[in-house]
Amino acid sequence: MNDQMILEPAPRVVRAGQTIRQCSVIRLDDGRRVQEDTLWFEMPERHGLFEDDDCDVYLIAMLMDAMTEGRELVVKGAVSQRLLSNLTEYQAIWSTWVPEVYHEVAIEVDRFRVIPSHQTTLPRRAVCAFSGGVDAAFTVWRHARKQVGYRSQDIDCCALFHGFDIDLGDREAFDRVLEQTRKTLEDLRIEIVPLATNYREISRADWRYAHGGALVSALACFRPQARIGLLASGEPYDHLAIPWGSSPVCDPLLGSDDFEVMHDGASFSRTEKVVALAEWPIGRESLRVCWEGRLAGENCGQCEKCVRTALNFVVGGQQVPAGLPDRERLWERADRLFLATSAARREWELLHEAAAANGVDRRYVRAIRKVLAKKSRPRKSKVLKRFFKRLRQ
Question: What is the 3-state secondary structure (H, E, C) of the chain?
Answer without folding.
Answer: CCCEEEEEEEEEEEECCEEEEEEEEEEEECCEEEEEEEEEEEEECCCCCCCCCECHHHHHHHHHHHHHHCCEEEEEEEECHHHHHHHHHHHHHHHHHCCCCCCCCCEEEEEECCCCHHHHHCCCEEEEECCCCHHHHHHHHHHHCCCCHHHCCEEEEEEEEECCCCCCCCHHHHHHHHHHHHHHHHCCCCCEEEEEECHHHHCCCCHHHHHHHHHHHHHHHHCCCCCEEEEECCCCHHHCCCCCCCCCCCHHHHCECCEEEEEECCCCCHHHHHHHHHHCHHHHHCCCCCCCCCCCCCCCCCCHHHHHHHHHHHHCCCCCCCCCCCHHHHHHHHCCCCCCCHHHHHHHHHHHHHHHHHCCCHHHHHHHHHHHHCCCCCCCCHHHHHHHHHHHC
